[in-house]
Here is the input.
Amino acid sequence: MRYKKMKAWLHQCPGEIPQGIAAPCEMAEYELNNAFPESAWTIRVVPEMKDGYRIRQENGSWVLTGGDTGVLYGAYAMIRKYYSGQPAPAAEESAPRYALRMINCWDNADGTVERGYSGRSLFFEGGHFAYDSGRMRELGRLLASVGLNVLCINNVNVHDPAQLLLEDYLPEAAELAAILRPFGVRLMFSVDYSQPMRHGITTADPLDPAVRKWWKDTAARVWEAIPDLAGFLVKADSEGRPGPFTYGRNHAEGANMLAEAVKPYGGVVVWRCFVYNCRQDWRDLETDRPKAAYEHYAYLDGQFSDNVILQVKHGPFDFQVREPLSPLLLAMKKTNLAMELQLAQEYTGHQIDLYTMAPMWKELFEEMPSGNIMSIAAVSNLGRDENYTGHPLAAVNLYTFGLLAWNPDMDMETSVSEWIRLTYSLSEKDTGDLQRVLLSSRRIYEKYTAPLGIGWMVTPHDHYGPNPSGYEYDLWGTYHKADRNAVGIDRTEHGTGYLLQYPEDFRIKYEKPETCPDLMLLFYHRLPYTFRMKDGRTMIQRIYDDHFEGLEETEKMAAVIRSIPFPEPDFSCIVRRMDMQLRNAREWCDIINTFFHRLSGIDDEKGRKIYL
Ligand code: GCV
Here is the structure.
């Protein structure tokens, strides 16, 4: 028997999606008739409404009006409400805040997934496409059910032979695009900036006529095969990837060349801003990595073509447990921006430890007006595991990301509870317990890992488990510089000047250690262990307290999780991972406390066990 959870939060939807449904409005009709066989539905397509929809009851029957894709999102909104036990709305109207709501898969053609914790690739194996078309329909359904509409299927690090997506693999890519089209999901490809050089052209210089022609011809071929391809995603001049810097060109020149090639077809170029010196000498005291993205891009504001979107990681480093909002997201008012989040739990527990992201996302939007960006993307946490996300509870992040991308004002308590009710049939008490566990999981993880905004105390490269000085003398620019007296980097105007990249109101909030929010303290400041926190504790005591609390709260969380009657195989999987999380939390707690005690020589005031 097929594992029912394969449909994840849609497992209550009856039936498999049949082949042969060609358009989102037909899919909407199919889904509504299936889910509500007793009700009469009228679907009216008004193309100008695009992704938006309106639901009304008229004379005892339901009327769903919306754009070509809007009617599908309206149908899924009804379905989500129904299966999560919410009353049907008398009337509802909705449209997404962002036009492109993107999932970026870091899948390689060989079937591996960079930073993937849910098994192998859903799309590739052995250097070729290798997908189950039924599963692709399920995937399309899941993405559409939460409003996601762009799927970039290959890694931004385009490893050979993934570049063939633009060439030999195009017919198969077109077949996949056709499977996802009725779900309103458009494909996107990550492209290798130096690809013309595989075709006898001696340069990838964006201003070279032969290079420009190659990309124009390529775009023509690609869009002929997939007319609704969303565009190209580009990682250039980053972590060894080729890019315009090699030719003395800036990133506006680099991106605009591609933008010109894809423009006739309505394509976009999503250009990532994850550019920094990844070969820094730790002795170099001048360079401060978080400053890099702003330095590379802010001065180019207004110079990018209108079909270029700069995709900026939410923080200035790289998806740490806590980072400030990237200053670039507040700086480039004349440029299309997308914020990049990461569902894959690279630094946040590898989908072993529980880490529900919605609280972090809500904090980011508190710092940034939602209109500063026009699109949003997240690195995928999907894989070939039967439950899609490795840890069954990690699916809450994909689900809530969809709702956030639709409307960043979404209420996270409601969204998490909706996901639980769709996914499991639990008592009210268990539903409430699980919701509390999920919503507290990020803070708990933060407490037992890196302290007060420091980050990077992880095992190098793999990024699971503690290693406080693992990156300290490495070349990635991620240092904490802890010594016997103090820890942290001064990023104010008296230090590296990073804080000067922000507008004044933001700066004021963080520039003085006495008023800087505790959880960001060591991101912005270098402070002695004896520094008095706002609540009167010393900073070192606060570090000890957080770590002991993080471990204790994980133990309590484990007890709650074990008491919830999840169905199999979820129960065994969740409990097994919870046991691993407990071991991880203990390891982090002990190692971080010992690390700081050995350096500072300061005892825990509460006399708890620190291994010396
Ligand atoms: C896809 C970090 C990750 C890399 C990732 C990179 C990126 O450095 O560790 O695996 O590469 O970010 O976002 O491009």
